[in-house]
Amino acid sequence: MKTFFKKAIKPLFILTVAASLVSCLDKSDRIKSDVQSSGSKVTKIESAKDLKGMKIGYCSPSLDAPYYQALFTSIKENTEINGMEFISADGQGDINKQIAAVEDLITKGVDALLLNPKDPMALVAVTKVAKAAGIPVFIIDSSIDPSAEIVTTIQSNNLANGELAGAWVAKKFGNKKMKIALLSGNAGNPVGLTRKQGLLQGITEEQLRTLGYINLNVATQMYTEWTYAGGLKAMEDVLVAHPDINVVITESDVCVLGAIKAIAQAGKTDDILIVAGADGQKEAIKYIMDTDFYGCTAMNSPVQIGRNSVECAIQYINGKRDFPLKSYTAPLLITKENAAQYYNPKALF
Q: What is its main location (predicted)?
């Protein structure tokens, strides 16, 4: 098997793009790279109203992933540091269970509902039930259909992050031909679709700018269900059907971390470059620091999103109503040049 470590490649593209998009936060400079916290970076938020006794409800699609666990912890700690009660529910990876879990939170009379929907359509009805009960709904991390009754969606800038990663790999290859395998989460997922759109746009726009033409060859797309095991199986199948793949682009670090085992077993760590449109998971950052086969990833911090979602809920409780439809954290590309700034082995994610 070829070694994981090669001569360091001088990064060709590295920057943090300042957020030009609106945020529910009144002070945009609050969005900082505090992802090195071992858990959540908690914030005591100024509130004119007494928050004691108020309840924040949170429903996750699952807790069976490091990202979901870190997001849960961030919301819980930021809720409790501000004197409120945290009530959680777990969808357990089943849409019917998540619907029932949200209905239970509504019955318990939470003052604000933070919802990370497994499906963009299936949870629309419960948002309408929540509104009828006077409970504001904040969508976090994922997306929901526009017909839902919500205050705002709080997430990373998936399109911009994907564009940064796509442009990086296009610069890296120049006029050398890429044969790409795309490892996606699951079919129809709106966040995955946006990240994929960003990756492909980033590649094509950079090629048009520097080459004057598009040379894009996506040989296959495989679904991983956002799991290590799914990534391993998908990559094994890719290498059988397309042994000459030289680039893997992915919608999330978790989709490809399992795939690395298959790449290594095939002795192709020197032949395949990995590029992720999200999330900045610590295992991915470590690979970026120590190897040349994991080129870059982009930041989707559960610490930031959890804190921002609680802050938005508190702002709503205090009377704020002029929220944008979507509130983004700042896009950020992580490559070998800056990876050490964002790596913490003790981090939850």
A: other
167-184 b/e (C-beta count within 10 Å ≥ 16 → b) = bbbbbbbeeeebebbbbb
Q: Which helix (H) or strand (E) segment is 152 a member of?
A: strand 152-156
Q: Using one digit for the tens of pLDDT, what is the confidence trace for 267-302? A: 999 999 999 999 999 999 999 999 999 999 999 999
d(CA 36, CA 39): 8
Place of tokens 């199986």: 233
Q: How far is CA 203 from CA 174, 207, 267, in A?
A: 10, 6, 27
Task: For residue range 3-49, list pLDDT tens digits in order.
Answer: 433 333 333 333 333 333 334 443 333 333 444 433 447 889 999 99
> 344: which 2 tokens?
């913490």
pLDDT, tens digit, 9 for 90 and up, residues 85-106: 999 999 998 999 999 999 999 9
Burial of 10 (0-12, 13-18, 19+ CB in 10 A): exposed
Q: Which residues, 6 or more positions from 110, have their beta carbon under 8 angstroms from its beta carbon?
A: 55, 56, 57, 87, 135
pTM to 2 decimal places: 0.82
DSSP string, 45-73: PP-SS--TT-EEEEEES-S-SHHHHHHHH
- Which among 319, 317, 305 has a CA at the least distance from the CA of 82? 317
Beta bridge partners of 155: 328
Across the chain, which distance is largest between two alpha carbons, in Å?
62
Contact between 330 and 164 under an 8 Å Cβ cutoff? The reply is no
Which amino acid is it at 155? Answer: Q
**Cα–Cα dist 231/227, whole Å:** 6
Average pLDDT over residues 144-156: 96
Residues whose CB falls within 8 Å of the CB of residue 132, separated by 6 or more in sequence, listed in order = none
